[in-house]
Design goal:
The protein has helices at residues 3-39, 45-65, 79-90, 95-102, 106-109, 114-121, 123-131, 142-159, 162-176, 183-203, 207-221, 223-257, 273-278, 283-286, 296-309, 350-358, 369-380, 416-423, 425-429, 467-470, 474-494, and strands spanning 263-268, 287-293, 311-312, 318-319, 332-338, 341-349, 397-401, 407-411, 431-436, 439-441, 453-457. It is of the alpha+beta class and 495 residues long. It folds into three domains: 17-221, Orthogonal Bundle (Hypothetical protein af1432); 224-361, Beta Polymerase, domain 2, CATH 3.30.460; 396-494, Beta-grasp domain (Ubiquitin-like (UB roll)), CATH 3.10.20.30. Helix 7 crosses helix 9. The radius of gyration is 26 Å and the shape is globular. Mean pLDDT is 86; it is low at 383-387.
């Protein structure tokens, strides 16, 4: 290489280094600004100063530990923990979580130990970092190591739900930057994401995160369909741009006349297999206009104004504002004829929009932590180290009721038998049949959202192996397996 070429190479390397430093500085500033904005008001001046000092210390440790590491794409490794930390900060996570996000790979990928993390940043941060660290053991197979890593994450999540939230941000950034990996490795990560992390995101109320994880995973598994979908969405967006701008202007003018504070957001469906089947059905199948207002009352006023502006389509009104949809999203959904376009509109409050974006992390979100801990324990008690097959409990749910009016959340597709075990193991073991909304039904009957269920029992249990085909929840299946094994042991003993 000539001297001129060496000089040019050195200059380009220096410029790239400066660019990286500017980007890193901006990421850290954004993280600190979000932490102060979201949490500064609830902290004393001393606590806030301590938090900033710990944050800077974590950044310095991550910077030093990952100094010589690069990702497959060639970028400095430090960008990954910084982006994960920024995602966490955008979704209301506090200082300890952000510090753990910055350090989430130092124990796994560098000489830094968990004890050193705990000594410098405390037990809370160390617990989160532990939950994000892969299990390593040269004597174990890849599959067993993966299952043990899941187990570690779940055990920590039972103590602190934030570890799963951080894992979602970690996985999201990995999928966004996955292009440099070998195709077969990409496929493994995409399949694992669909099997484990998307259902968990839905169970945590993080609908938008689940949608993006699904879109990124499916784009890896079905690249041609994803490419066609993006092309159709782009063409539809360009073709309808002028009309949509006029609709937005008309809506804003009407709402301003009635002193309604509103924000309008374009919402194109993320790529999904269902969405791919909708291609060709027009803009209403792939796009909705999101209308954000301040209160529930304003949402109903907005609905009236919209239906006065545009003709509503019969049978297309869904009110999930006070009774959440199966995925937990709270909004009024309607479809209107706006000029040449049939348009889907979702009206919700800013508060509920935060819930759908950040789920369990959003201020005010009501999360049944005990139910979640029970789910995690039942998954760990399954036949495998981590019962992935029945993680569907963590996705779409239904709400059913006892005869006394108490509600129970169950996975979509649950049977009356699942309901019995949800109430109590003894009730499930002695179940005979069910009364659903006053009608006598067999135990394998699938429940619908809103059903009221009463379980009739017998003195002598009639548990059969086929009950495993009727039940979908880990709790019910684990109880049935245990009882059947007990019967087998007792029969051998009697023989």
């Amino acid at each position: 290489m000539s001297q001129a070429q060496l000089f040019k190479f050195d200059s380009e390397a220096a410029m790239k280094k400066k660019q990286y430093q500017r980007e890193i500085h901006k990421l850290m500033n954004d993280i600190a600004e979000l932490l102060v904005t979201h949490h500064g008001g609830s902290l004393s001046e001393g606590d806030l100063d301590h938090g900033i000092k710990q944050l800077n210390g974590a950044f310095k440790l991550a910077q030093d530990a990952h100094a010589e590491q690069k990702r497959k794409s060639g970028e400095p490794y430090l960008f990954h923990p910084l982006r994960v930390a920024l995602l966490a900060a955008r979704h209301w996570m506090e200082f300890s979580s952000i510090i753990a996000a910055l350090l989430h790979d130092v124990v796994e990928d560098t000489p830094v130990t968990l004890d050193e993390v705990e000594a410098d940043f405390g037990a809370e941060v160390a617990l989160l970092v532990k939950g994000l660290t892969k299990v390593e053991d040269a004597a174990l197979s890849r599959e067993i190591l993966k299952a043990e890593t899941y187990r570690n994450q779940i055990l920590v999540a039972i103590k602190d739900i934030r570890v799963l939230c951080l894992k979602l941000w970690d996985r999201l950034d990995n999928l966004r930057t996955i292009g440099a990996l070998k195709p077969e490795k990409q496929v493994l990560i995409a399949e694992e994401t669909r099997t484990v992390y998307i259902p968990l995101a839905r169970h945590l109320g993080m609908g938008q995160v689940a949608d993006e994880l699904e879109a990124l995973s499916l784009a890896i598994l079905y690249p041609r369909r994803a490419s066609r979908y993006r092309r159709v969405v782009k063409e539809l967006g360009e073709r309808s741009d002028s009309a949509r701008r006029q609709i937005r202007n008309d809506i804003t003018t009407e709402f301003n006349r009635h002193h309604l504070n509103v924000a309008l957001k374009d919402n194109w469906r993320s790529f999904s297999l269902e969405g791919a089947m909708r291609v060709g059905r027009g803009i209403s199948a792939l796009y909705s206009l999101d209308v954000l207002v301040d209160s529930t009352m304003d949402a109903y006023v907005a609905l009236g104004l919209l239906h006065r502006l545009y003709q509503p389509i019969t049978g297309k009104l869904r009110d999930h504002l006070n009774a959440p949809s199966q995925h937990g999203y709270q909004a009024i959904k309607t479809t209107v004829q706006a000029g040449e376009y049939r348009l889907r509109i979702q009206i919700t409050t800013r508060k509920f929009e935060r819930f759908n974006e950040s789920g369990v992390l959003a201020p005010g979100f009501e999360f049944r932590r005990e139910n979640f801990a029970g789910l995690m324990r039942s998954l760990l008690d399954g036949e495998s180290i981590f019962d992935i097959d029945h993680l569907r409990l963590a996705s779409a749910t239904i709400q059913v009721y006892t005869p006394n009016g108490e509600s129970r959340m169950l996975p979509e597709g649950s049977s009356a038998l699942d309901f019995a075990f949800e109430i109590h193991e003894k009730l499930g073991i002695h179940a005979f049949r069910a009364r659903i909304n006053g009608q006598t039904r067999v135990l394998k009957t699938r429940l619908m959202d809103g059903d009221q269920v009463q379980i009739e029992t017998v003195d002598v249990p009639g548990v059969l192996p086929k009950w495993l085909d009727w039940a979908v929840t880990p709790r019910a299946r684990n109880s049935i397996r245990r009882y059947l094994r007990t019967i087998v042991r007792d029969n051998k003993h009697n023989d």
